[in-house]
Write a structure and sequence with these properties.
about 425 residues; alpha/beta; Aspartate Aminotransferase, domain 1; Aspartate Aminotransferase, domain 2; 7-stranded mixed sheet; 4-stranded mixed sheet; 13 helices; globular; binds pyridoxal-5'-phosphate; biotin biosynthesis; aminotransferase; EC 2.6.1.62; cytoplasm; pyridoxal phosphate
Length: about 425
Amino acid sequence: MSWLERDNESIWHPFTQLVDGFEHIMVERAEGMYLHTSDGRRILDAISSWWVNLHGHSHPKIAEAVAKQAQNLEHVIFAGFTHAPAIELAEKLLSILPDNQSKIFYSDNGSTANEVALKMAFQYWYNRGNEERKKVIAFEGAYHGDTFGAMSVGDRGPFSAPFSPFLFDVDFIPMPVKGNEDEVIQKFYQLVESDQVAAFIFEPLVLGSAGMKMYDASFLDKLINIAHDNDVICIADEVFTGFGRTGKHFASDYLENKPDIFCLSKGLTGGTMALGVTSSTADIMEAYKSTDIMKTFFHGHSFTANPIACAASIASFELLMEEDTQNQITNISHWQSEFKEKISKHPKVLNSRVLGTIFALELKTESDTSYVNEVRHKLYPFFLERNILLRPLGNIIYILPPYIIKKKELEQVYSAVEEMLESL
Ligand SMILES: *Cc1c(COP(=O)(O)O)cnc(C)c1O
């Protein structure tokens, strides 16, 4: 049997319809911008392999750090024990997170980082003896992961439909756009003034999975301000927006009012392996300082703070801080903006937008903008035939490259997008 036949026999892939005849692409190795396939193709990864990769594939510095760590301390229980990679990474993250962040809690991925954040917020009120604050506010269309807590605060659409009876109650507010600002603020006021809201969770400035929907920092600032005036804990899910994606280290760096809890993952290890981080303020942590065992935060995973993942993250962090990388982030942001200017007036383009290194365009189609828009089935193969990996969200095409991409390579992606627009 071939590898692909064996794949078909034995593997259930994520976010993939189980239909006969679908063949996955077999990747043999990856280096820099490119995936090398078993049939000899070289595919340009223009979406950073689901938004995780920062410095290109199989980066030698990260690979070296991983190999070295694996030979010295591969893993150890993180309750009662600690290790240098976890401490060093925590210090590094705190050095670039806003000043109000004081502690790093490790978990396994983006979903668990959000689970930890929600539990941390709920128990904060529990430990304080407040039994009223049980509500959560989130944005319509949000995505915070695929575990139950994360699904509960996310979009109630086709993806969560089978689980809707099992998701906890959440108050959703529309994402702010020009025209509905007063309405959203009014609704937010009403919700938080009840003194029943434990937390407000949001993807700052960009709702990624919703289709790279962008909104103004000034607006989020207003919401956080109102939340803080009413003692509501603000959770910034920067799982996607962290580590330079929006042009600054964190999307929250565009805000004046700082969130209380941050969730990080995806680019944290440079996209090498899974690791999640939830950081919190000293005030939140204070609610847990007690000799009463009931006030302990009883949450942890077997692989919490895995030393190899921490070592990969430290290597990725050092690469991110290099001047070359920071310049590249500026360059990519510039190129993306130029391309947006160029194609924004195209008759097939409904909307185009850029924030930092993130570019997105919404195609005009017969049906509404959504993930299940049929045009997706044409777009994905169109780009793959040109050896470019783009994975449109319905009729939304986005370009999200690793920071090592060269102008020439990005132009190749832009040409393919233009060719696609002409072909419609
Ligand atoms: C991807 C993503 C998550 C989930 O992260 P996983 O590591 O896939 O569990 C959560 N929040 C946001 C904003 C994301 O983009």
